[in-house]
Design goal:
168 residues, Aminopeptidase, 5 helices, 7 strands, 34% helix, binds coenzyme A
């Protein structure tokens, strides 16, 4: 497992570095919801990326926790944990990594770090959803023993976290 991969809670400084990583090394649709307008990283889409994270993770009442992923202390992507409505104790996980860092074990390391963070935040289950064509996600989950099941057009899994038994 790579040891140069870390997660840091997002803040305004890291958000600026995350925007740079996204613009230089990822497709908008890999890292944020669709925004109307010209394709690519037009100014409107860059602003929407910043507003998206400010609203969801950096507001006084955040909807989710976002982490900047760093590789050798350089921001290389983002990971998030979002509490699922109607499923107490369950967080949905999301991850994207810049192209230059893909296929080199970063995603595998991030999954372990993110599950640890989820456990530390008190979640007991992490929900993941992907598409059948996402070979990388399927491989990294399969390598960890996670079985994805079809759910409509998606493949999903509920990963149970190991929690310490209460002290007697
Ligand atoms: C999905 C993603 C997070 C995986 O991270 P990564 O750092 O590339 O993953 P790893 O290098 O740890 O590889 C994990 C497994 O996927 C395989 N893999 C990686 N990229 C692959 C590719 N393009 N095609 C096929 N297999 C791939 C690796 O070989 C490895 O499998 P193995 O353990 O059997 O060898 C990253 O590719 C990404 O950010 N993609 C774009 C955004 C995205 O799809 N996010 C997830 C949405 S659910």
């Amino acid at each position: 497992m790579r040891t140069d991969v870390k997660l840091y809670r997002l803040n305004q400084r890291l958000l600026a570095e995350l925007l740079h990583a996204a613009v230089t090394d990822a497709d908008p649709l890999e890292v944020m919801p669709p925004v109307t307008g010209p394709s690519g990283w037009a100014p409107k889409r860059r602003a929407a990326f910043v507003q998206f994270h400010e609203a969801r993770s950096l507001s006084a009442d955040p909807l989710e926790t976002t982490f900047a992923i760093t590789v050798a202390e350089q921001v290389a992507g983002a990971a998030r944990l979002c509490p699922l409505d109607g499923q107490p104790g369950t967080a949905e996980a999301g991850v994207w990594i810049g192209r230059a860092h893909r296929g080199a074990g970063v995603g595998t390391a991030v999954l372990e770090l993110l599950l640890n963070r989820a456990s530390a935040q008190g979640f007991t289950t992490v929900y993941v959803s992907t598409t059948p064509d996402n070979t990388a996600v399927r491989s990294l989950l399969s390598a960890r023993g996670v079985v994805l099941v079809p759910d409509g057009d998606a493949l999903t899994a509920h990963i149970k976290l190991i929690t310490d038994p209460p002290v007697a």
